[in-house]
Amino acid sequence: MANLTAQQAQKLANHFSAMAEIIGNYRYSNNLPHNEDMEIGRLQELIIEQADDLYTNAAILIFNDVQGALNTIQTITEQMESTYNTLINIQKAINIAASVVNLGMAILARDMNEISNSIDELLESVS
């Protein structure tokens, strides 16, 4: 399998979690013999661990993707400081603040496409 994106790792983790839940529901809905219940429970635990690992990998991938954006955000912050010190146009101040909010929402949503779009929007607002 090729390298996973953060979004793909997140989706896989969601699927693994769902499959573990389905297996758990099966275990609890059926009166399984002890040995079989223990075996399927062990397998369910392994699936949960794999889902956790995928969630961790997704977070690492997101962090790696964001690293490049952090440098740009630092530059924007410096530009904002000088822009706000000389700003006369109130609408521009509002636009910059709204762009910062959009970037924050994109980062919190872990949406790399929207992070990129928001950075571009913020760069345009500050310029």
Give a summary of the structure in a few sentences.
By secondary structure, the chain is an all-alpha fold. 87% of the residues lie in helices and 0% in strands.
Give the beta-strand count.
Answer: 0
Q: Share of helix among residues?
A: over 70%
Number of domains: 1
Main sheet overview: none
Q: With helices defined by DSSP (H or I, 4 residues minimum), what is the helix count?
A: 4
Radius of gyration: 23 Å
Distance between the termini: 42 Å
Structural class: mainly alpha
What is the overall shape? Answer: rod-shaped
Report the β-strand fraction as a percent range. under 5%
Low-confidence stretches: none
What average pLDDT do the residues reach? 83
Run of helices and strands: HHHH
Description:
Keywords: Transferase. One of its GO terms (cellular component) is membrane. This is PTS EIIA type-4 domain-containing protein. By secondary structure, the protein is mainly α. It has one domain (6-126). It has helices at 6-29, 34-85, 90-109, 112-126. The longest helix has 52 residues, at 34-85. It is rod-shaped, with a radius of gyration of 23 Å. The mean pLDDT is 83.
How do the helices and strands line up, and which of them pair or pack?
Elements lengths: L5 H24 L4 H52 L4 H20 L2 H15 L1
Please describe the structure with a list of short key phrases separated by commas or semicolons:
127 residues; mainly alpha; 87% helix
